[in-house]
Amino acid sequence: MTSDHRKSAASEDRRELRSLRTGFLLSHDQSPNAVAVEVAGESLSYADLYQRAAAIAVTLEQQDARGANANPDERPALTAVFGQRSTAVVTGILGILFRGDGYVPLNPTFPTDRTRSMLERSGCRAIVVDENAEKQIVEVVTGIETPLLIIFPERTDVSELKAALPNHQVLGTHDLESAKEWTPADVDPNGIAYLLFTSGSTGIPKGVMVAHRNVNAFLDAMAERYAVTPNDRLSQTFELTFDLSVFDLFLAWECGARVCIPTQAQKMLPAKYIQDSGITIWFSVPSTAVMMSKLRMLKPGAYPSLRWSLFCGEALPSEIVERFVEAAPNSTAENLYGPTELTIACTLYRWDTKRSPGECELGLVPIGDPYPGMEVLVVDEDLQPVAEGETGELLMTGLQLTPGYWRDAERTDAAYTVPPGEDRLFYRTGDRVRRCQGKSPMVYLGRLDNQIKIQGYRVELGEVESAMRDIAAAEVAIAVGWPVTAAGADSIVVFISNADADLGEIQKLGKTRLPSYMAPRQVRHVDSFPLNSNGKVDRKALLALLSGY
Amino acid sequence: MDEKSIRDELRMWILDRAGAEADRLSGDDQPILDEGLLSSLDIVEFILFIESVREEEVDIEAIEPEVFDCIDTLIEAFFADAPSASEPQG
Description:
The structure holds 2 protein chains of 2 kinds. In chain A, 33% of the residues lie in helices and 23% in strands. Chain A is built from 17 helices and 29 strands. Chain A is globular and about 70 Å long. Chain B has one domain: Non-ribosomal Peptide Synthetase Peptidyl Carrier Protein, Chain A. Chain B is 40% helix and 0% strand. In chain B, helix 1 runs antiparallel to helix 2 (43-54).
């Protein structure tokens, strides 16, 4: 059997057992020396990344076998990865998937208590940590009694970390197992590929389980639509705790392309990063494009290398996409829409310079049509379909419908429902849309609840209010997005009625409890909350108060 | 405005935005991105603030990401012509 035949046979095997890692493995087999990832001036080939990830996978397997985890049978098939924008987290994610686990991304910019809560609720017994998260890891695991396996894949000397983490097993680069004889074990396509915590209205983040089959359906649709080739370079602007990061990493690897991860400093200047890195597929939240516009980065013809300009995560203002297309004249722009529960994105709309301005509503680009394998219902309050052209809540089902929330049957049942006259589960997005009519595409019109987007991040105002009530010892705290933008809001303002509260101190404490995008930019006092006709706090009146300041 | 005043202004803006106490920024060579004091969420307002202090636009295309490392690099990139505190100002 020739080498090519062996590769082909291996590829066939991998197709049968397809999971999120499969695309990477196939690309590795085909072009091991191609660059898979570029970050902070370092490039790793598919072979480099495979070797490093395999060493993590073998180590995770061996440590299970040796009993490092007290009850391997009870261990959820999940391992956490703690870090950002590093080769260590990228190899960590792949190593976890190679081992057959799903990954749970944790973010070092989040407050420590929030990260500890996510880690504990996930039930993970092992965690891969990069140098950006080293400072936090000791504090994060303090108080966690279950021994954890903590791997620092790019740290050669872990003696200090071992001393600081005496209750846990700490491994560095030299402690990783050899992967010479290793081959990946089977993975259940229905198993969890990643578990991603999102903002929860009750004050507790929800863990969205995304199965391998969900994300592979998404990647299939994307790979075909964008015809990604090994020559493409995909930008990776998102944090790992934002599910849009899955698009960049795994679509690139599915197609043998390169994913380019800007450092925090490079993220400040996306224009320069696109040009210097030769990005061909740009994917960001609209807020990044708004920022580029405000900072005069969208000059006509500035980005000739781009062939796709893709936006997702929040409403896309039409004036922004018009400017972006002028700056990237060789690219096609598309607006992608979708909540985490429907696997990254599930509808899309292609911008057409002549036709699209007439199809926009409220200055926003339509969200368009569902992906292959996805179906749409637009319903009224009784979950009955509305007529074409009418508005209602968007419900969706199909290949990308995720299994629900991790260990939270109550919230799963509330969000995943079987509408009257249907026999399948649909996810209730909470988004108000105008149903398409004839050739008119579906249009996003806003939320039905108090969820907002801050620069693309999903924020349940109820979660912010819960934290701020606690901090301020207030009976009522009301959060609003402010200033309001076409895409959502730039930040959050919280109102409380405690006359004697130290507002500055409360705002500072908010930063210790909530991620920076959720922490209120201002805390203001009101003598009494304005009420609407239903006796509820009138948020619009609070926004009007801010307009008057 | 002299260089010392500009350094004070930058320090106050960063600490205020981060909701942090003064001791979080002990020196002007302390990393502000790596320490989480500033993020890409703040970039527009930060650049506009720098422009208001400079009283002229920043040439975005000419700056390198490294200028955001710390206050020293910001001063070097955006306020290289500012007089030191001891120099007479005309």
